[in-house]
TrEMBL record:
It comes from Sporichthya brevicatena. This is Peroxisomal trans-2-enoyl-CoA reductase. Interacts with PEX5, probably required to target it into peroxisomes. The lineage of its organism: Bacteria, Bacillati, Actinomycetota, Actinomycetes, Sporichthyales. It is found in: Peroxisome. Keywords: Fatty acid biosynthesis, Fatty acid metabolism, Lipid biosynthesis, Lipid metabolism, NADP, Oxidoreductase, Peroxisome, Phosphoprotein. Its EC number is 1.3.1.38. CDD domains: TER_DECR_SDR_a.
Length: 294
């Protein structure tokens, strides 16, 4: 299988240089993985970028990656589940970099587990981070943009299982479905204020920062994961950066309420004859150090 062509390499620009010059972009979870790749692409296009997340080691990674491309960066401690902490973080971003023009709701928590094994606190942790966090940060952003008479863009990172559900993802998929739906409600409410709200749904984008159960660590593991995708490969994080910057750019000025799927055709791969069905417990056996919840 040859699949689709490979993407241009990291560092190749899609939008004109300076597309986000003079703008401030806040990326929740911007210190790791896909959020970091998105933050870097905005930085490359001239934005000052704020990383909003909990852990100092992630702040340092994000700021270093943004500064390497010559952009202004700042990191701000916040748990997106706490609306008051979000307000404080926005105050801090404004003081350090200026008012936020673009918000990327990328922060997420996830761990694959059969639904009936997810504890109430585990359910709440995932759904609060993904759905409530997206709502709290978006509304804080919109209140400020509207008060300042500024237009803006919000980008919500979803997942393709938001539409299908899937084994091991009851909490995450339900929350991401809420995010896709919220994207539509906020888009129609805020369009008159010049605030666009779109979504971006990644397929398989393995990288070193996701928890071990969601990584493919070996070349063989990666190759076998790639064979599951119609396009014959997994995604590269910088491809998400291109899609994210496009959706928030003036080239998408008339686009709002849309969630773009970027997955090499993976969520459409269902055939008339599928491979043998594998129950969730065989797909995600508990890790050896798992807590006994019986
Ligand atoms: C086979 C190869 C496949 C390769 C696939 C490639 C990539 C596929 C990617 C698929 C889609 C990915 C979507 C994503 O969202 S990736 C993002 C993942 N990133 C993270 O999750 C990072 C941040 N995560 C966290 O901070 C935590 O995991 C957590 C979400 C739980 C939030 O942390 P918090 O500090 O608030 O919570 P606690 O640690 O206090 O825990 C709260 C309760 O949750 C339970 N818990 C936590 N982790 C697990 C686990 N791994 N398994 C089961 N339960 C867990 C914890 O026990 C607490 O509950 P209890 O008090 O009842 O014990
Ligand atoms: N990787 C993939 O293949 C896929 C990823 N996605 C989505 O892409 C996005 C990025 O995921 P990815 O980069 O892979 O995963 P990571 O685990 O690398 O990123 C998650 C980020 O969220 C931050 N975060 C977690 N909880 C909180 C919180 N309570 N408050 C603030 N920040 C928080 C973390 O920072 P900190 O710990 O410092 O708080 C971390 O930087 C997520 O929305 C995910 O659901 C969707 C489909 C597939």
């Amino acid at each position: 299988m040859s699949g689709l062509p490979v993407p241009p390499p990291l560092g190749t620009a899609m939008l004109p240089a300076g597309t986000f010059a003079g703008q401030v972009v806040a990326v929740t979870g911007g210190g790791t993985g896909l959020g970091k790749a998105i933050a870097v692409e905005f930085a490359r296009l001239g934005a000052a970028v704020a990383v909003l997340s909990r852990k100092p080691e992630h702040h340092a990674k994000g700021v270093a990656a943004i500064e390497v491309v010559g952009a202004k960066a700042g990191a701000f401690a916040v748990d997106v589940r706490d609306p008051e902490a979000i307000a404080v973080a926005f105050d801090e971003v404004e003081a350090a970099l200026g008012p936020v023009d673009v918000l990327v709701n990328n922060a997420a928590g996830n761990f694959p587990q059969p639904a009936e094994d997810i504890s109430p606190r585990g359910w709440r942790a995932v759904t609060d981070i993904v759905l409530d966090g997206t709502f709290f940060a978006s509304t804080e952003f919109a209140r400020r943009a509207r008060a300042g008479g500024r237009p803006g863009a919000v980008l919500n990172i979803a997942a393709t299982y938001a539409w299908t559900g899937g084994p091991g993802t009851a909490h995450s998929a339900a929350a991401k479905a809420g995010v896709v739906n919220l994207t539509q409600s906020l888009a129609v409410e805020w369009a008159p204020d010049g605030i666009r709200v779109n979504g971006l749904a990644p397929g398989l984008f393995p990288h070193e920062d996701v928890p071990p159960q969601m990584r493919a660590d070996t070349p063989e593991g990666l190759a076998s994961l790639a064979r599951t995708v119609p396009a014959g490969r997994v995604g590269s994080p910088h491809e998400l950066g291109w899609a994210a910057t496009f959706l928030c750019s003036p080239y998408a000025a008339y686009l709002t309420g849309h969630t773009l799927v970027l997955d090499g055709g993976n969520w459409l791969r269902r055939g008339l004859r599928m491979p043998d069905f594998l129950p969730v417990r065989e797909q995600f056996p508990p890790p050896p150090d798992a807590k006994d919840r019986s």
